[in-house]
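Hey, I'm writing a tutorial for new members on how sequence and structure tokens pair up, and I'd like a real worked example in the thread rather than a made-up one. If someone can provide the structure for the chain below, I'll link this post from the tutorial.
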Amino acid sequence: MKAIRIHAFGGPESLVYEDISEPQLKAGEVLVQTHTVGVNPIDWKTCSGGGAAPFIGDLPFVPGWEFSGHVIACGSDVSGFTSDDGVFGFVRFPEAAGCYAEQIAVPAEQISLLPPSVDLKLAGGLALAGLTAWQALFDKGALKPKQKVLIIAAAGGVGHLAVQLAKWKGAHVTGTASSSNHDFLTSIGCDEVLDYHQADSLSGDRRFDLIIDGVGGDTGIDAVEYLAEGGCLVTLPSVTKDAVIAAGQAKGKQVLPIRVEPNAQQLSILASLVAEGELKMHLATSYSLSEAAQAFKDIASGHTRGKVVLTVSQPTL
């Protein structure tokens, strides 16, 4: 079967489209015919030697942690899934999961069934960003109705889902984005949109109960100033989390890091929200599996609106 592998850490040029052996199904696993896989910043960071690289082990390595597809077979001890079921998931993170491949064997406890009305292509990019948004808002941030939330980088893969989930919860949502994304963010529920190109967009006495920092670094550090008393900032980028946490400690503010975790129950809720029209994932671009290098370039630019995915195979149903 075809897959994307790296034989040495490096840039997009290190991605090799090649034949590999089909996965062997083990106890507790489901064998899936992959339809779509999500492309995320953690993918290119890991392939370049950062991100989750310390957890990968020996090369070669097949990237990818999120997918959608159809069940081919189940381990003898697996229940709840049958052949041809539509499923999606975020699996094995931060260890290697190998989702950039035509078939994958995945832990049954980390995947969820897809309602028939949910598009397979969109579902392939939903799990990682959706779980990150959910866990940042609700598990870490403990967001409550009527609270004020600021989402930095609100038009991105995580950000645009966080906007919708915060509105679903009943929060007042402010997002930051370039001016070209303001109408988009208003259309998905932002009560206010700030242009991050304008130095004074965050100023004065603005205060937020929860800030989701999707940028980190100086942007995250500066945002600490705008936390309300008792508020919380959740910073997503791991590479700058220590600096943002230190800035919070210096001001007596709560700053929390996050590493997204697989969670089948939360995936099921996200899928139901999509099926009910409460949550819509915006697809920025879709590439074929063999075009993964170009997808990496798009993601690394930091300017995509919504999610980038790779289409691995056409649905069989």
